Structures are given as structure tokens and as C-alpha cells.
Amino acid sequence: MNIGLYFGTFNPMHVGHLVIANHLAEHSDLDQVWIVVTPQSPHKKKQSLLDDRQRLEMVYRATKEYPKLVPSTIEFDLPQPNYTVRTLAYLEEKHPEHSFALIMGEDNLNSLPKWKNAEVIIKRYPIYVYPRKSTEAKKTALLANEAKIIKIDAPIMELSSTFIRQQIKAGQNIRPMLPEAVWDYLDEMNFYK
């Protein structure tokens, strides 16, 4: 199978994440999109970052009705701090029957040349890039002629988890921005208040 890897903290997972992941699962050559929940770095304690398992629970709840979207804990058991290139090598070793691609926004594409072993990632893996309204992809020498960078004509989703957390803390109604099951979980657990 051709698997797209959508990395993030998903703190919380919102409708923007779901729309992009589902769009790629339905409108590209990817068979599945694995939603890879990035663990909290033991060296960086962010007060607003929920525990790994709580964020994973939100991803499970958000994707349960989407068979092509698969929550992944693959990075939970890898040594920290972790790098994408190590995760990709681990996945290839563990799942030789699959081929893997990255999914990222244009903003992350701009910073890709600064990633650990970026040249290996760019040469070996297709990268599906979804548009961002606020950024413009910059062509660096490393990215200039890469055929493996695939621009996706996906809906532009200008919604951030940071904004959602801020609005919850301020007591604002952000229900439409979250999958219903995620809203129910956040409300039940009293998160971000």
C-alpha cells in the first residue's frame, strides 16, 4: 500500500486536520493516511500540550468513521528526541510491504531544508504539500527540481490548534471547529480551560 504520513501534535485534532487528511486519502494515489501523533519531548514541557495518550484518543475519536485514516503511535516507542528521517527508516524496516510519503503544509516545506538529513528525505520520499493561505513556498536549491514534491489542490484550512486552545480558555464556543467526538472528549475531560 501507498501510505501518506501526516505528522503532528494534534493538540487538539480539529476539522482542518480531518479535511486535509481525508482529502488526500480520497483524492490522491495514497491508499491510507496514517495520522502520526508526535510525542511530547521530555526536554520541552509545554503546559498546553496534553499527554500523548490523550491526544491519541482525540485522533482515534476523530477518525473512527474514516477507514482510510489510521491513527499511529509509531513515534511513541522511538528514542527521543526523534527525527522524521529515523521514523521513515523504522517504518520501512517494520513495513517493507508499504511505500511511504510525507504530508505537510507549504509552511513546513519551507523549513524542510533545515531538517536532519533533509536531502535523504527529499530524494527518497514523495512529499504531498497542501496549500496555506499565509505562506508562499520558497524554492531553495535543495527543493528546486524535485519531482517528488507533489502540490495538492486541497481546501485551504486556516485553522490552528493554538487558536482553538486560546478560544476554549477564553470561554468561546468553538464546537464547529472540532469533530463532534473530539469536542465531547474535550468537554468531558475539561481540557484547555
What does this structure look like?
This protein has a single domain (2-158), classed as 3-Layer(aba) Sandwich (Rossmann fold). By secondary structure, it is an alpha/beta fold. Strands 3-2-1-4-5-6 form a 6-stranded parallel beta sheet, with helices on both faces. Strand 2 (32-37), helix 2 and strand 3 (69-72) form a beta-alpha-beta unit. The chain is 35% helix and 16% strand. Helix 2 (52-63) runs antiparallel to helix 7 (180-189).
Q: What's the CATH class label?
A: Alpha Beta
The total count of helices amounts to 7
Q: What is the number of independent domains?
A: 1
Largest sheet: 6 strands, parallel
Summary?
This protein has 193 residues and is α/β, with parallel strands linked by helices. It has one domain (2-158): Rossmann fold (3-Layer(aba) Sandwich), CATH 3.40.50. It has helices at 15-27, 52-63, 84-94, 106-111, 118-124, 161-169, 180-189; strands at residues 2-8, 32-37, 69-72, 99-105, 127-130, 149-151.
What's the SSE blueprint?
Elements: E1 2-8, H1 15-27, E2 32-37, H2 52-63, E3 69-72, H3 84-94, E4 99-105, H4 106-111, H5 118-124, E5 127-130, E6 149-151, H6 161-169, H7 180-189
Parallel strand pairs: 1-2, 1-4, 2-3, 4-5, 5-6
Helix pairs in contact: 2-7
Name the descriptors.
193 residues; alpha/beta; Rossmann fold; 6 strands
